Amino acid sequence: MPIALYRIDDRLIHGQVVVGWGQPLELRFIVLVDDEVASSEWEQELYRMGVPPEMSVHFHTVNEAAERLADFERSPQPGIVLVGDIGTMERLVKAAPGRIRTVNVGGVHHSPGRAGRLRYVFLTAAEEAGLRAIEAQGVEVTAQDVPTARAVPLNELLASTATD
Fold it and tell me: Which residues contact 79 (CB under 8 A, 6 or more apart)?
């Protein structure tokens, strides 16, 4: 079964991913793509604690994940590829050309310099350019915090404000 979801969420593994997406999609594994976390046993253990026993977690750098995507797609069980920021997803899309077809922007939260687009998406101009670069690679980019919400297309996301 192909990867059920490629998601950008700055909180990485948390309840909304594990329960909100995990249960309806019947996810059995998470591929957490983060160069720093991939090299930190301590951080990996913290993230593992947030996952139920029936779900496995794989930690990879961008390059490792790009090399392993075909293996994960061949898994008989559904999984999610999770990154913490737009730049990491942009690098992953470029490292695995043509393999990733859709990207979900699930949570990019407020910080200085970011403008509100949706209640759960705040972006800098550079992050907006990163999302456009992902789309330019032939990837459909939408924002959606939970599976029951409407997927917001990229052009609509970038035209909206957090009060819309």
Answer: 3, 4, 27, 28, 29, 30, 31, 72
Give Cβ neighbours of residue 22 (< 8 Å, ≥ 6 apart).
52, 55, 80
Q: What angle do CA 32, 36, 39 make, to 5 degrees?
A: 90
pLDDT digits 0-9 by tens, 112-164: 999 999 999 999 999 999 999 999 999 999 999 999 999 999 999 999 886 65
From residue 19, alpha-carbon distances to 11, 15, 110 in Å are 14, 5, 23
The domains of the chain, with CATH numbers, are 9-159 (3.40.35.10)
CB 114 within 8 A of CB 108: yes
For residue range 51-110, list pLDDT tens digits in order.
999 999 999 999 999 999 999 999 999 999 999 999 999 999 999 999 999 999 999 999
Residue 146 CA to residue 144 CA, distance in Å, equals 6
Query: For position 163, what pLDDT does the model report?
Result: 61
